[in-house]
């Protein structure tokens, strides 16, 4: 009976309880006067109680802005507008029907594609969480698999593979810059530190993680979700009519033209979507990538809708824009409580104090270089459970561990690589990931009894297997003295 009660805790209730926990922990730690010194800035960080007079005043002043300023909220809303039009117009379903040929290997092919796209999605930031996850559910359902299996597969591929890619991502230069700053502060040589200093290892890691996710999905996930949800409204085996094929062609043509314009505006000498200095970091292209993708999906959906006869006026388009309101309604409730939890955590400083305290104490362990690296990976994974921002964590962990590991003969790029293993592998199981509420909202579409524990039950086999496999690959790489990058 106790387990059954646990399973019906709504995700919104979970985040409310987590907020209460943060409030109580901040009160207790402030009583004991817990303070730490940030290794990078030298700033003294003390835990601030939210139950105090000032804490209560802060919460009441910011309870609305905590929600409206929740980082993923605006991105999710804007992106879902475009996806809503693409789905409401029938464009997404037509694409799936066009590419769906049934057959014996269709499930394996869809699984491989979802994993591959999830692993590569970090090139454009967090788009994988918002765009790929719901589309993966539709693809899995079309192939006769449980749609929640598609959500989990895409979610794990994006989350656990966030550091691994065969293409340089937006995070690579940010992490490298922090490593360089920490090396300079510690008087350590940093000749090999740069955006590509872990490229060789992370490229191979992408293949390894993809294989692990594929195997665990087939051996574990599909057995946990054996009974697919029947979709009576769409027959994916039904061939497209002449009008639908023409509409799909026109939509694809507009899509190609649109994305060609985006690429020309980004990578040509014209470069209106590049940064002021000509680079891509924090450029209009990178900062607006989710809107650009949403606009592209919406345009193709509109063209398909009008060409196929599904749309006849702007009223139909507006209905498409509001098509995802039902999903967003559930997401808004979950996001409201999640936003309060994240804001309370940030205001109280509980996560920073605990993370820095753990890092400082475990750095005192005197062992050989390789055991220290393994401890460092485990520590990074544990801290990631309460603080998911890679740059925030590396901003203090690099300044503590790089000098210590340098004394053991470990170069900064190897330490950086070890950190990224721990930082990514536990992403899928922490309730403190910004996009966890969105994943739960997607799952609630197909199972009203979905909770965080449902998500945890389905994701922990992936996280644990990836963690162990990644450490084994790192060990082999390290002992064989293979270059981690260039």
Would you report the number of β strands? Answer: 2
Beta-strand percentage? under 5%
The number of domains is 1
Low-confidence segments: 1-7
Largest sheet: 2 strands, antiparallel
Model description:
The chain is mainly alpha-helical and 486 residues long. The protein has one domain (2-68, 101-236, 324-479). Helix content is 69%, strand content 1%. The protein is built from 21 helices and two strands. It has helices at residues 2-7, 11-31, 53-68, 71-88, 91-99, 106-120, 127-142, 147-160, 171-185, 199-224, 242-267, 284-287, 289-308, 314-321, 325-348, 350-362, 369-384, 390-407, 412-425, 436-444, 452-479; strands at 35-37, 44-46. A two-stranded antiparallel sheet has the order 1-2. The protein starts with a helix and ends in a 7-residue tail after the last helix.
């Amino acid at each position: 009976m106790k387990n059954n009660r646990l399973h019906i805790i709504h995700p919104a209730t979970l985040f409310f309880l987590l907020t209460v926990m943060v409030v109580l922990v901040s009160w207790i730690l402030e009583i004991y006067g817990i303070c730490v010194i940030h290794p990078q800035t030298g700033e003294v960080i003390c835990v601030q109680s939210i139950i105090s007079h000032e804490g209560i005043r802060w919460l009441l002043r910011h309870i609305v802005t905590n929600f409206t300023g929740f980082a993923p909220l605006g991105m999710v809303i804007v992106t879902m507008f475009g996806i809503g039009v693409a789905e409401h117009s029938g464009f997404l379903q037509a694409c799936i029907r066009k590419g769906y040929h049934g057959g014996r290997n269709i499930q394996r092919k869809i699984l491989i594609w979802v994993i591959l796209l999830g692993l590569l999605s970090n090139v454009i930031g967090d788009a994988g969480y918002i765009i790929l996850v719901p589309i993966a559910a539709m693809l899995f359902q079309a192939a006769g698999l449980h749609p929640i299996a598609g959500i989990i597969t895409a979610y794990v591929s994006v989350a656990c593979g966030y550091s691994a890619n065969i293409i340089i991502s937006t995070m690579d230069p940010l992490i490298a810059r922090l490593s360089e700053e920490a090396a300079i502060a510690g008087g350590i040589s940093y000749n090999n530190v740069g955006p590509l200093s872990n490229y060789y290892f992370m490229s191979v890691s992408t293949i390894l993680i993809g294989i692990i996710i594929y195997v665990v999905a087939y051996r574990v996930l599909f057995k946990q979700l054996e009974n697919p949800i029947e979709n009576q409204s769409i027959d994916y085996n039904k061939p497209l009519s002449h009008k639908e094929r023409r509409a799909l062609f026109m939509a694809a043509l507009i899509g190609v033209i649109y994305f060609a314009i985006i690429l020309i505006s980004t990578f040509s000498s014209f470069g209106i979507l590049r940064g002021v200095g000509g680079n891509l970091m924090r450029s209009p292209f990178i900062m607006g990538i989710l809107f650009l993708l949403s606009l592209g999906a919406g345009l193709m959906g509109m063209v398909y809708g009008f060409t196929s006869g599904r749309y006849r006026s702007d009223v139909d388009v507006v209905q498409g824009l509001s098509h995802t309101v039902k999903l967003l309604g559930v997401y808004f409730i979950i996001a409201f409580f999640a936003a309060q939890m994240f804001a309370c955590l940030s205001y109280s400083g509980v996560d920073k104090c605990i993370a820095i305290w753990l890092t400082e104490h475990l750095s005192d362990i005197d062992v050989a270089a390789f055991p220290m690296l393994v401890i460092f990976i485990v520590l990074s994974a544990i801290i990631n459970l309460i603080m998911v921002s890679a740059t925030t964590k590396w901003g203090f962990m690099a300044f503590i561990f790089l000098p210590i590991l340098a004394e053991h003969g470990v170069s900064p790029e190897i330490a950086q690589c070890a950190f990224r293993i721990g930082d990514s592998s536990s992403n899928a199981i922490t309730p403190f990931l910004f996009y966890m509420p969105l994943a739960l909202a997607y799952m609630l579409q197909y199972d009203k009894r979905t909770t965080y524990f449902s998500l945890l039950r389905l994701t922990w086999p992936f996280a644990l297997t990836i963690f162990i496999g990644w450490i084994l690959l790192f060990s082999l790489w390290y002992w064989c003295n293979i270059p981690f990058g260039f």
